[in-house]
Amino acid sequence: MKILIISTLNLSHSNGGTVHFTSISQEFRRAGHILDAIIPSTNNQKIDQQIATKYFDKVIFSSNKLSKLLPISKTSINSLLQIFTVLQQNPNEYDWVYLRSNLLSFFVLLALKLRGFEKIVTEHNGWFVDELTMMGVYDWQQSIIKYLQIRDGKLANLVRTVVPNIKEKLIENGIDSQKIFVAGNGTDINFFQPKTRQEILKKLNLNPEYFYLGFIGDLEPWQGVEVAINAMSIIYDKYPETRLLVIGGGRKINYLNETYGNLEYIKFMGVVSYEQSNDYINCFDIALLPKQGLDDIGYSPIKLYAYAAAGRAILASDIKGIKELEPSKFLVLHQPGNSQDLAAKAIEMISNREKLSQMGIIAREYAEKHFSWQLVTDKIIQAMEKYNYNFPDISR
Fold first, then answer.
1. Are 290 and 223 in contact (CB under 8 A)?
2. What separation in angstroms does the CA of 124 have from each of 49, 207, 213?
3. Predicted TM-score of the model (pTM)
4. How many whole angstroms separate alpha carbon 219 and alpha carbon 137?
């Protein structure tokens, strides 16, 4: 198949969204499909060329100049500029369009349909209203975004959701259940792998005498990093050799740095490149995933899958999309938003370090069987092929 894939993400940035998008892109091509893309320019010709060569067969770069005008959208507003790019494309060149949905991507979807693109799958990686609520966005803005997300689901031929509860939300709002399929997130199990602890700590100039709890990712409200920080005083009292490594940037980084940066047991390490991320994760004796909020929707956490592939023991929130993995015995659950419970569970884990090693081995084995991006992309391709079989294009 020849597929046109569209997103407003800046692929020069390393975060969960860009990893998701580029990983699926690579798997489409590995499966033998031709993949063109419409993505925003990074405003750096050399970087644009590197991205185009690495992930796609051809790239049409759109502008990213609107992204600063609507802060709540991050990059979503650039969808409006992609409308003009879409209208210049020939729909007869493509078998499918894969559109990563965002707050405003419905307008791109509408442009695709008006231009004559017949088969479009949209990816819904969140229930946007819930995320906007956590960010304190006005109710009237939430109503508009909810309407656009529902219209997106109705207009698309297929809808991919990353968790079952997003599918349920769409069905509740009148989307045909037959067009929706669930394909969660994944990780690169070849990139994320266990490494020798002492070598990695030496490489990153970290004291091997310390015991490290760690978090890596965007510091957004739903990540719950402050819960982990507040738990550290209790953990530190019991085990003074413990340290918390916080790796990443985001909306809360300045606040967290100013509030907690002077604590000796907290180390803010800033943003690291994707290429460095496996090394940093391998520093964690316990990898943390203290997510909070979005209880009705749940998560398909890329971070957890990377932790597991790197062979880390995991301490995570007891929340949908995470708690279902507890029987696999490579993670321990704590109450979401509860620093005292997180501390108690961490202390219990630290007290049995031999068990932590076993959890890491189990995590790696489980990741190899269940968390690869290839498995995720196979589900997407199967949904497309099933649609092609049920609705053959007799004009081709």
1. yes
2. 28, 42, 32
3. 0.87
4. 18
Radius of gyration, alpha carbons of the chain: 21
Classify burial at 222, counting beta carbons within 10 Å of its beta carbon; exposed 0-12, middle 13-18, buried 19 or more. middle
Domain coordinates in residue numbering, the chain: 2-186+373-390, 197-370
Please indicate whether residue 300 or residue 62 has the higher confidence score (pLDDT).
Answer: 62
pLDDT tens readout for residues 369-395: 999 999 999 999 999 999 999 888 744
Residues with Cβ < 8 Å from 392, sequence gap 6 or more?
none
2-186+373-390: CATH homologous superfamily?
Glycogen Phosphorylase B; (3.40.50.2000)
The answer to whether the CB of 115 falls within 8 A of the CB of 87 is: yes
Give 104-163 as a DSSP string: TTHHHHHHHHHHT---EEEEE-S-HHHHHHHTT--HHHHHHHHHHHHHHHHHSSEEEESS
**What is the C-alpha separation between 188 and 20, in angstroms, rounded?**
10
Contact 383, 1 (CB under 8 A): no
Can 2-186+373-390 and 197-370 be said to share one CATH topology? Answer: yes
Does residue 68 have a pLDDT over 70? no
Topology adopted by domain 197-370:
Rossmann fold (3.40.50)
